[in-house]
Amino acid sequence: MRRHAALSLGRVGIKKRAVEALVEVLNDPKELVRSGAAEALGELDDEEAIPHLEELLSDEDPKVVAAAEDALMKLGVELE
Known about the structure:
mainly alpha; Leucine-rich Repeat Variant; 5 helices
């Protein structure tokens, strides 16, 4: 449920509030919620999300890391 809410916020495009809310969700204990928030942040195209997504690159769950990488690439960040 929270994953769907995170993705929906990103798709609606209420940028400023959505970015703030999604950044909060990046700390959720559930990996599906964190990965959904990362995906949504990539869709919002807001550079403010970049440092928060970069922190997810060290997440313990590979799906979360992959979602963060995809989001960062959408935001124009080149990954090594």
